Every structure is written in structure tokens, then in C-alpha cells.
Amino acid sequence: MFAAGIALIFAAAQIDLSQVKDPRDAVPVPWKDPGYNKFLWLQTPNFGPRPAGTIVDTVVIHSTVIPTLERTTAAFLRESSQVSAHFTIGKDGSYIMHLSTFDRAWHAGKSNDAAGRDNVNNYSIGIELVNLNDGKDPYPPEQVQVLKNIINGLKRRFPLTQLVSHEFISIPAGRKSDPKGFPWEKLKDIGLPMYYGENPKNKADGNKAGG
């Protein structure tokens, strides 16, 4: 079941499944990024079940502010951090899977999407990009390509309907700004609606985004 589930999720990414160990990988000591389009599954303790009957249809794209894949992974491995995402992609296209996409990660916080649905964590997959989120730090082509690979793989498993920025869904508007400077035009060929930038309908705490 484990291998079959991973194969469905990553079919479009053309990932070598022989690198996946069941049930989880161990943290490498000393640390070494896995390499372009390769990953480790380093299980975070910070997750929970999705509500019964949830349809996963959203991908939320974040930037880490933390400058390396190693340090981001360390943060997500600490229970005290109380944060996680499903994936983090390094600048060279290495990435870490932090938990199963069938589980609920803690990445969106108080949130609302363009359709007015709150608690975006419930129905979304969170993907972090290693980036300082200062609007100057680049998102290299290798990182963007692996992001596209993962999303295309997820489309094979989930009925995705939208890609959103953390900034767009955050309540109140302005609480988050990531992924600042991300080249959204490079995701157009994925063929999903995209919502990014500040959502003015989320200005007040508790407001819902309409339309």
C-alpha cells in the first residue's frame, strides 16, 4: 500500500521509488541534501487527521524564511515548533517530504480561500520553498521545476482546483507575505487557477474572502 500510494502521487514527477524506505527515512548524519528531484521522508510530529470526508483540492505555496533545507527540516522535526508542511523544496531541487498528503499539516494558520472556505489546512497540501522571502532572494529554475513536478504528481492523486499563496489565504490580510517574489507565471502551464498577493477581503480578522 505504501509503495502504491507513493507511485500514484509521484507518477508525473518520474521519481525513482527505490530511494523511498518503508516506513520512513532517517535524518542523515552528517546532513546531505538528497539532490535534484530526489527526496527523503523525514516524518514531522506536527500533524493531525483531516476531517472525515475532506476532499483535498488546494496547494498552498510558502517560502521558509529559514535559509536552508536542513534547518527547515529541523524546525519541522521539533514538536515544540507546532508547524509543518507536506514538502520543503531546496534551491537545488532537493526536497523533503514531512508527512503523508493524506494527513493534515499545520502550515496555513488562520485562513480563508477565494471561495470563502476557512481552515485551509483541512483541504490543502502545503509546499515550502527555501527562500528568505525578502523579495530579492531568487527561486532557481531547479526549485521551480521540482515544485511543478510535485504539483503535477499530486494532480494524478487529488482533484486539485487551485494553487494559492500563503499571503492570499492569511487572515487578517497582511499577516503573511510569502512566497514574496515568486514567479507565478512559471506555473501557468500546470493549468490550475492561481490566487496570490494580498486578498483585500481578508482585511479584518474573521472576514471571509468572497467570489
Write up this protein.
The chain has 211 residues and is of the alpha/beta class. It has a single domain, classed as Lysozyme-like, CATH 3.40.80.10. It contains 4 helices and 9 strands. The protein has helices at residues 2-10, 69-77, 141-155, 166-169, and strands at 39-41, 47-48, 58-63, 87-89, 95-97, 104-105, 124-129, 162-165, 194-195. The strands form 2 sheets. A 7-stranded mixed sheet has the order 1-5-4-7-3-8-9, with helices on both faces. It is globular and about 45 Å long. The termini are far apart.
User: What is the residue-averaged pLDDT?
Assistant: 89
Number of helices: 4
DSSP helix fraction: 10-25%
With strands numbered from the N-terminus, the spatial order across the biggest sheet is: 1-5-4-7-3-8-9
Oligomeric form of this entry? single chain
| CATH homologous superfamily identity | Peptidoglycan recognition protein-like
Q: Indicate the structural class.
A: alpha/beta
Strand count, sense and closure of the main sheet?
A: 7 strands, mixed
Instruction: Provide the CATH architecture.
Output: 3-Layer(aba) Sandwich
Number of strands: 9
As a percent range, the share of strand residues is 5-15%
Per CATH, the class reads Alpha Beta
Order of helices and strands: HEEEHEEEEHEHE
Question: Which stretches are low in confidence, meaning pLDDT under 50 for 5 or more residues running?
Answer: 1-22, 205-211
- CA(first)-CA(last) distance: 39 Å
Report the C-alpha radius of gyration, rounded: 16 Å
Short description:
With 211 residues, this protein is α/β, with parallel strands linked by helices.
